[in-house]
Predict the 3D structure of the following.
Amino acid sequence: VILSRAFAKNKSSRQPFAMQAPKLGNLSQSIAFDEYGQPFIILREQDKQKRLRGKDAHKANILAARSVARILRSSLGPRGMDKILVSPDGDVTVTNDGATILQKMDIQHEIGKLLVELSKSQDDEIGDGTTGVVVMAGALLEEAEKLIDKGIHPIRISQGFEDACDVAVAHLAKIADVVPWTEEKLGALYETASTTLGSKIISRFQKQMSQIAVDAVLAVADLKRKDVNFEMIKVEGKVGGRLEDTMLVRGIVLDKEMSHSQMPKEIKDAKIAILTCAFEPPKPKTKHKLDIKTAEAYKDLYEREQKYFKDMVRLCKESGATLVLCQWGFDDEANHLLLQHKLPAVRWVGGVEIELIAIATGARIVPRFEELAPEKLGTAGLVREVTFGTTNEKMLFIEKCPLTRAVTVLIRGGNQMIIDEAQRSLHDAMCVTRNLIKDNRIVYGGGAAEVACSLQVMEFADSVSGVEQYAVRAFADALEQIPIALAENSGLQPIPELARVRKAQIENKSSHLGVDCLQKGTLDMKKQKVFETLIGKQQQLMLATQLVRMILKIDDVIQPSDQF
């Protein structure tokens, strides 16, 4: 009756009208009726969803992002602390690399996941500054929250941040120094890589590790095109020894050994055959059954199998090969024949390693024994098997290759955690070196660049009219959170230290004065040789600002309720 009266009342206008549906048990739905009185559902099972709107949504999103950024804040700088992360399987990771920490944390909140992606973007594009970019995003969101509490609309805040970011990026380019370097004078590259390693666990051997990173990059770099192919740098870790035993090998290192213990351990002027075919008789691909009924038939089968093996070894010997690298394994029969014919071999060589060896030695990868020929063999001045420690751990070194564009960094360490962290640290240093080869402009670290940009943005704020001026000033305040975090992590008084750096920069009109984290007695980062690449610092500011703008534009969050 109620429905028919309501329908009659609205019949003249013929417009659909909505009414609250009756509660059916524990469920309620929003229902509207069309012009013919037919009901349809607008939102199904509304009470099964949790919804945040407007200011509450902004506050919740900012709180989630700031919580993640706060975790990384204590890992910033040369005195930053490490984090221990334990996986569900019990694997332990010790690191202070921002991207690694966030990836291993298994963050569930949707805004927290955006920060994980932010850190990964910085890592993919630049390779360094993954912690700083997240700390910067957290500082910007903290300032944005204060402005929202004052009643400023998030869109106006976003616009102010964008304008301030453009000013800061332009100012970074203005204060950047060009570091000239040549293949004979590599000091600038070593010093920049050394700055990157300053906050890592391997900082005790900063000089040695920075030289390894720079030399590895230059070995594979195409300086005319200013391009570096990281796939040509193989990083291999071996537990045992000391961290300072880490070395750069001008060739390829395989975590393999000769297939037979009596094969020679050292081969000079080796001619290498690279095979991707198995050292065994061919097998039919269809299901088959073979009945052997007599001893003569078995002997005939054995002789045929032997002939296959002997033909394979003969083809290898006739090609002139003195070492065979096989992607697949082979049984004891083939191994014995190879030893008899004095042909050293290595089995189960990985696909990526085979490609690197082919590039380094000039070999062609051979898919069939019949295609083996002298011109398809690679050459290496020395192939040697090296034994480590007392555990009989062995590795194969392929050195003095004609094309030295493929190199290997062999990392040693007391345990796997140290090796993994050293590998991540060297990767960051290599990325910074690559960036410097592409663009040899640098800015100074220790918070010097951030303070200089903060002063410039604060000056720009005076020329901005409207409420965006508040956002521009907030951006300048957020920039100062980086030197404050550096001072905190170094055990210094953050506010007096920041005031000291600001005063020094204004009085000396110098943009390379920063926080003296290592207590060397000078604020001059130029003298301390603390450098960062310009493109890395610019990318940090732009990525952090873009993410903050994205978060501020979210004003409605609909998600399943926790109770269902």
The radius of gyration is 33 Å.
